[in-house]
Amino acid sequence: MKLSGGSGVLMQVVRATKKLLYMKMTKLAVATLVAAFGFSIAALADDAKLPPTSTNAGVTYATDIKPIFDATCVKCHDGTKKPRAGLALNTLEGTLKGSKDAKVVVVGDSAKSDLVLSVAHIGDPDTFMPKGKGAKPLTPEQIGLIRAWIDQGAK
Ligand code: HEC
Known about the structure:
mainly alpha
């Protein structure tokens, strides 16, 4: 019958289209997987470069973090003067508020906080802190404390 011949061709077309769609979707899925995997590898690599989070409990800005900032950062990031990048690190409020462009602390996630990346010297060297001739980088212990402070809620 003519009809069955016609629908046979139609079925073939449908099958071929399905196959093509399936292949496209598979490719898309693979591409998505590769991208996601790539990102997590990149994130892992950065995480591995970060000094470990301090195991100290109850880390606060007032007792643990302000002394570090006062000694190394506040000469440039002083809210009572004109802080560089608009970032005042001399108070908890200023630190959480961030710079004129962006927040630098992601409360609860130190590995994603620009402040941590900048002192751990990860990413663009222009953003490495502290800046300035002869500036001494923070120690891994100091960075670990800052991480713990952020991960514990930046109180
Ligand atoms: C000698 C001056 C100086 C010192 C010391 C310094 N900074 Fe900075 N900081 C700057 C300048 C200038 C910028 C502006 C952007 C740039 O040049 O990267 C900046 C930018 C930043 C930013 C990025 C703000 C943004 O989102 O644009 C962070 C975070 C930061 N500083 C943290 C710190 C920390 C933490 C310390 C101490 C460990 C510190 N800085 C010490 C000069 C300084």
